[in-house]
Design brief:
Strand order of the largest sheet: 3-7-8-14-11-10-9-24-27-23-22
Number of helices: 16
Radius of gyration: 26 Å
Number of strands: 27
Helix content: 25-40%
Structural class: alpha+beta
Shape: globular
Largest sheet: 11 strands, mixed
Strand content: 25-35%
Length: 519
């Protein structure tokens, strides 16, 4: 039986006891929340709509940061930091932009507190101009670019910042949608339209590569429709992944802003002929939403399953300390084993090792690491020590499946073993996605596909579309389904590059688009 079938059976009606209740099949939304808690990734905070990211979850974010930051710098980008507060007048300069974010903005109107005479405090010192807590930074960075850029010699300007943003969401879910979240946002300025578009698509490809190679999350790249476009952008491109409940997750976006923001912020430069022109700009970003995508792509009914490349630790060593007389020997053996493993490398980084010598029952301790999703659990007891072996369990396989491996063989093969797990997780996620993509050519079939319960239907529909915003709004109202993207060519999606007819209007359509329910 393949790993895929074993995994699917576990979440498909099996009566086997699982660590997470309810299971994915019973209540996917609640399953997700329970995995976040059981894996010790995050918890709700005392501040409405905000979360506390716990050390295990934050370590995942640090690994995401490290991987992406290296890719950004390899493509010529440099990090900077810009203010958290944005003058209201800056947002007002780009009408479409402010309209798109107005309902999500948190606004600071006072700069101090004073006693209210009744034992409490009240705002005082009204600001001359309200300050918006950063929902995104196009305007404040654009105003800075206007100061930095004078001539064509200053271009291209390639900047990234790692920051937090605030969008006052009414309905929140840990990692997926919170009032405050962490992200990176790239902002660039160019001398020509072609260079700016090239940058936009280059960073889209960086996101695709990272999602695929690091997160083991297969994604579809494409352009958003007019109705789904970033406020103020000329074109918005995205990566879309399919979660285990067959809904889509927009995991990253890259925007070609044209000259919209450069005109609003007066970002000009003198070209080679000393003519003054407006720069062409881009912006692009991913956030801690990627961690939610990891959970929903790979988690199972026992908790999280971590792709090795972003796992906080690649393996945990669990000493078996039943007998006091062998305790010191086993611990010494495990410490030496940990040191040898840490000297090995997986990719460009050392192997990350945890040694868990806590005084807990073995089963309880093992289950904690299973729920956290650590790729490998390595048990070592007196018998293993005598035989020069280790007892290994893989998180991507059933927790009862373990094998004894000679110590030297395990150490020497650790990198290839981790890569095998990484590749296998990507393959299973890709098979799941491909199994739930359907080519649909009639309106009735489309409504049937998305009208079924999540357990019985749904996924990605490859369907022709005439581009009507009114039609898209109607389908969204009827089914909570939207066009996730107009896929870029050459991705091997079924029926992707065929010209045809929109099944809803009978109008011509140059290509199929991806429709789905989404987060």
């Amino acid at each position: 039986m393949s790993d895929k079938k074993q995994s699917n059976q576990k979440g498909s009606g099996s009566k086997q006891k699982t660590a997470i209740q309810p299971t994915r099949l019973e209540n996917y939304a609640e399953w997700y929340q329970q995995v976040v808690r059981a894996a010790e990734m995050a918890e709700t905070s005392d501040v409405r709509g905000c979360m506390v990211i716990k050390p295990w979850g934050y370590a995942v974010w640090e690994n995401i940061q490290q991987g992406l930051d290296g890719m950004f710098k390899a493509t010529g980008h440099r990090n900077a930091y810009f203010p958290l507060f944005i003058p209201l007048s800056y947002l007002e300069k780009e009408a479409e932009h402010v309209e798109g974010f107005a309902k999500e903005c948190a606004v600071v109107t006072h700069h101090r507190l004073e006693p209210d005479g009744e034992g409490g405090l009240q705002p005082a010192g009204a600001l001359e101009e309200p300050l918006v807590v950063r929902p995104t930074s196009e305007t404040i960075i654009g105003s800075t670019f206007a100061k930095w850029i004078e001539s064509w010699r200053d271009l291209p300007l390639l900047i990234n910042q790692w920051a937090n943003v605030v969008r006052w969401e009414m309905r929140t879910r840990l990692f997926l949608r919170t009032a405050e979240f962490l992200w990176q946002e790239g902002h660039t300025a160019h001398a020509t339209e072609a260079e700016a578009m090239e940058e936009t698509l280059k960073m889209l490809e960086v996101y695709r590569e990272f999602a695929t190679e690091w997160l083991a999350m297969p994604v579809i790249t494409g352009e958003k429709t007019e109705g789904e476009r970033f406020p103020g952008a000329v074109n918005t491109f995205c990566i879309e992944g399919m979660m285990q409940d067959r809904k889509a997750l927009q995991a990253g976006t890259s925007h070609f802003l044209g000259q919209n923001f450069s005109r609003a912020q007066d970002i000009t430069f003198a070209d080679r002929d000393t003519n003054v022109q407006h720069a062409w700009t881009t912006s692009w970003g991913v956030s801690t939403r990627l961690i939610g995508g990891l959970i929903m792509t790979h988690g199972d009914d026992d908790g999280m399953v971590m792709p090795p490349k972003v796992a906080p630790a690649h393996l945990v060593i669990l000493p078996v300390l039943h007998k006091e007389e062998t305790r010191e020997q086993v611990l010494a053996y495990c410490e030496q084993l940990a040191a040898e493993l840490r000297s090995c490398r997986y990719g460009d980084a050392p192997v990350r090792v945890e040694l868990d010598a806590r005084d807990l029952r073995g089963g309880e301790k093992s289950w904690q690491w299973i729920k956290r999703g650590i790729p490998l659990r390595v048990e070592v007891g007196p018998r293993d020590m005598e035989q020069g072996a280790v007892f290994v369990a893989r998180r991507d396989r059933p927790h009862s499946e373990k094998s004894s491996i000679e110590r030297g063989e395990f150490i020497g093969g650790i990198a290839s073993l981790l890569q095998e797990i990484q590749a296998g997780m990507l393959q299973r996620a890709r098979e799941h996605r491909d199994d739930h993509i359907r080519v649909i050519d009639t309106e009735q079939a489309f409504y049937d596909f998305f009208g079924k319960t999540p357990e019985g239907g749904g996924g990605f529909a490859m369907t022709h579309f005439c581009g009507s915003t009114e039609l898209e709004d109607r389908i969204k109202k009827d089914l909570a389904v939207t066009v996730r993207c107009i896929p870029t060519r050459g991705q091997g999606l079924p029926g992707q590059d065929e010209a045809g007819t929109c099944p809803f209007t009978g109008e011509p359509s140059a290509t199929r688009v991806v429709w789905a329910k989404s987060y």
